[in-house]
Amino acid sequence: MPDIANQPVTSLRGVGPRMADKLAEAGIEQVEDLLFHLPLRYQDRTRITPLGAVQPGSDVVVEGEIRVADIAFGRRRSLLCRIQDSTGTLSLRFFHFSAAQKNNLQAGHRIRCFGEVRRGASGLEMYHPEYRLLDEIQATPVEESLTPIYPGSAGVSQGTWRKLCAQAVALVARAAPADLLPNREGFGLSLLDALTYLHAPPPDAPQELIREGRHPAQLRLALEELVAHNLSLEKLRRQQQARGAPVLAAGQDEVGDFIATLPFALTAAQQRVVDEIDADLAKPIPMLRLVQGDVGSGKTVVAACAARRAMACGFQVAIMAPTEILAEQHRASFAGWFESAGISPCLLTGRVKGKARRSTLEAIANGEAPLIIGTHALFQDEVKFARLGLVVVDEQHRFGVHQRLRLTEKGEQPHQLVMTATPIPRTLSMVAYADLDCSVIDELPPGRQPVQTVLISDSRRDKVIERVRAACEGGRQAYWVCTLIEESDALEAQAAEATCQDLETRLPGLRVGLVHGRLKPSDKEAVMQQFKAGTIDLLVATTVIEVGVDVANASLMIIENPERLGLAQLHQLRGRVGRGAEASHCVLLFKSPLSRQGQARLSSMRESNDGFYIAERDLELRGPGEVLGTRQTGLMDFRVADIQVHGDLLERVRELGREVANQRPEQVEPLIRRWLGNAERFASV
Ligand code: ADP
Ligand code: MG
Questions:
Q1: HEC sequence for 475-487
Q2: Its pTM surpasses 0.85
Q3: Domain assignment of residue 87, yes or no
Q4: How many angstroms is it from 502 CA to the middle of ligand 1?
Q5: Which residue of 267, 273, 301, 442 sits with most ligand 1 atoms within 8 Å of its CB, as the best mutation to test the pocket?
Q6: Are residues 363 and 434 in the same domain?
Q7: Predicted confidence (pLDDT) per residue in 214-252, tens digit
Q8: 371-374 and 346-348 beta bridge pairing
Q9: Same domain? 287 vs 189
Q10: How far does the centroid of ligand 2 lie from the alpha carbon of residue 321, in Å?
Q11: Which of 99, 114, 142 is the last residue of a domain?
Q12: Domain boundary among 441, 472, 499
């Protein structure tokens, strides 16, 4: 877009420094920003509705002659003004009015009003309409287009938004900007066509279609916006790659020895992903690879292969887990796996304090610690690595993109491996992870039996409790998961405590344990350890067990009120069973009656054990914010595009992005600037 669009808003009529400040608060600094400040909805002021035809509840323009205007003394004093046309009458009611107003509204004048029609004391009424007295001689035209209602902002009235946006559109139209997207991709509309349409749609515009976000003008903008985001992620990727990374090509023997000591052979899928990672590590540019694999597909050992190679090449490895429990579990796994190689991992979480912390930090800084496992505490400023070569981020969906990038700001660029257990629908990953290469472990280790899932109503709770007894008396272990009642740890913990007590009384022979988010981490861990060691038969838990807990002997899971959880989360939970050779079961103990949607969702759990299928269903049913987790919703914060509404556009996004970058590279920056603003949040983190 030409320069005019990039001028400050103060170049517009009516914008002084004070208005500019208010606009800046709404993120509007340049003329161009106004163009993309799109209306939320529209009012129809293009027609005059005959008074005999007005309906309560509608916003309409009416016109008539004032018959009487008088103060009415009801419960509240008001100015009541009755108007009439050839088809009927209507009352205008003003609770607040000035003497001048009262004087103006005199019988005999013609008046045009806009407002909402309601039923009032005198029949149909309009309260505080916008109005204008009409000059007999000069017939004032009605609006030619629908009237936009803009997203509000303190101190900027709708009238001001309308004037400024109209000015911006007119100014830019005069400058005839070049389009940044190829014409054939524009749904028959140039950018300017689309913007003009949405700021001022014609009277016959299909408002329903616009509400749904599927008008060609919106599709045109959404596509461009998605391309802009894609280009921004690609730019970020190029910036990272420009920084260079250590070549980790050696260590073949060490990795081979490591794999040979495992009690199992890698699956073909694991081996393929290990090879893909090896190819990346051997290059002097930093790897940025996402490994997606269903729960239990064995991602950890794949990460261990990469870690072994990096250490054999003389570099440090940092592994970041989302919770302390999981960090500790990884530490234990890696300690076992690397024992024969003489490598012992060190742990760094928020709980490592005082002297232990100081000596750990020192070992990291002087390079004595080759393998560091922890939570996000790993990437605080006080942590300095001597030679960091590889970062592994486990269960990525719990970390934001921002965290993902922050760790790469530290001087030299390590390779990054990101592992997610929540398979991400392809459409979403194209947007959220365009800057990552992707590997998929699409095979479970042999001998795993799919978890049998059943739906049982809570009216049959007794039967389910019996089932728990039978399983535990048969030497197996079970989980009983209590779900969130409200967004409150405390309430959830309370509910879990009550359930635990109830189950203890009803299952006197069993050893019952309890974990929830309110426990001290050390207590939580102690209980988990007991469950792992088999000294607890039944573990009552809140959703804190969701991620990563590995107890092969647990073969039964009861999930209470599963209708409250997302499918991806249910799938994660269910993945805690079915880890051993035993046939495993998951009981979804739902609260009846179940809504139609609830039924649809839980049925997909019964139908499938495939995380990718379930993720697609989840996206359909709940939308991208939920699927990616709340911390990532900022990423989905588009101006026009909505992944749920515009998913079909995504197919073209990557290709179009590439085309713009290759054929018209000078347009990349303007596009990114236009849609992501100066902040360009990805690059600035
Ligand atoms: P996830 O992908 O969910 O993180 P894990 O890495 O925790 O899965 O692996 C789940 C379990 O499967 C672990 O106990 C692990 O030791 C085991 N495992 C991993 N790979 C294999 C394999 N190829 N054959 C048998 N068991 C495996
Ligand atoms: Mg895992």
A1: CCEEEEECCCCCC
A2: no
A3: yes
A4: 34
A5: 301
A6: yes
A7: 999 999 999 999 898 888 888 877 877 788 899 999 999
A8: parallel
A9: no
A10: 9
A11: 142
A12: 441
